[in-house]
Amino acid sequence: MAKKKDPVTEPPAEESVALTTTKEGSISLDTASLDIPEATRENIEMLLGMLSGETEGLEVEEDYIYRPTDIYLVQAMTKEERRGDAKNGEIVANSEVVAKLTEELRLFPVMAWVQRTHLNFDTSEVVCSSADAKYSREGDLCERCPDGRWVARTPPSCTQQRAVLFLAEDMSEIYRVYFQKSSAKAGTKVIDSIRRARGIGKCAILLGRSQEQNKRGEKYFQYKVRRDAENPPSPAEVTIVQALNKKFAYDRKKILAMAEARRHEFAAGGPVSPQGVLDVETRGEVDDVSM
Predict the structure, then answer these.
(1) Residue 8 lies in a domain
(2) Band of the pLDDT at 288, cuts 50, 70, 90?
(3) For 67, what's the count of Cα atoms within 13 Å in the CB-facing half-sphere?
């Protein structure tokens, strides 16, 4: 029996008529044929230039990979809150407020994956990390690592994150959000919303926050998401998001290949070129990341 296609991992080809991609991960998107406002067209064209490293004045290396803009919730004692740049509960990007307490961000989910990070709580130094939440940088199985387990009431120093890439509503930015700990359910809800919409690009998410209180009486904020069912993406927006999904799936494959190369290097005691494993199946992780 033929395997049924997953509408999340395999977007319909007929809805990407304005898109072409290459093995090298470049994108050619015919923005002139898309029914979008002129300001949005300028934003997406600028973003595509940044993605490919072809923006005027931008000097990039041969293995250039675009880095999305991280956004996060301001909590008590976050640097932006201490400096007075943002209030507790606001959402910031590059230390600038992008959503005030009463506001939600309307975003288009582009791609998601799972990873793990082991932080030193005292120094915030990254002790270890896993690009796929399966194997550490040295090749050890994450599920067997004691640093990822609770000990009595002490939380694990290595935590799993659901990372989601979003396209801003005005298409000027790609945002990256890490849903973890108390916000983990919100990340799962984003994925569920995509699946209910039957494919990448076919839903918009409203990203906000809620205030909670822990057992010690301390108040904190966590992400709250809901699907914008009243305003689904237009056909042009679907096409753009699906194009970006293909681009980031390729970049993600490169990142996984480099992680695999580091594991080979650690095991063999010598360097391994990331390109040497780029086209090799890396234990199936790539299938999990292209929404």
Answers:
(1) no
(2) very low
(3) 6
**Is residue 128 within 8 Å of residue 118, measured between CB atoms?**
yes
Residue 4 belongs to some domain of the structure: no
Q: What amino acid occupies position 288?
A: D
Tell me the two tokens of residue 216: 């010690």
Identity (one letter) of the amino acid at 263?
R
| Rg of the chain in Å (alpha carbons) | 20
Give the total number of structural domains in the chain.
1
Q: How confident is the model at residue 120 (pLDDT cuts 50, 70, 90)?
A: confident
- Residue range 249-280, pLDDT digits in tens: 888 888 888 888 888 887 777 655 554 443 33
Q: DSSP character for 63? A: T
Contact 212, 222 (CB under 8 A): yes
In a domain, 2, yes or no: no
Cα distance between residue 21 and residue 266, in whole Å: 34
Q: Sorting pLDDT into bands at 50, 70 and 90, what band is 24?
A: low
Give me the pLDDT at residue 43, please. Answer: 93
Give a three-class secondary structure readout of 23-44: CCCCEEECHHHCCCCHHHHHHH
Residue numbers of the domain that contains 267 = 13-288
pLDDT above 60 (res 143): yes
Q: Phi/psi at 41 (nearest 5 deg)?
A: -60, -45
Domain for residue 122, yes or no? yes
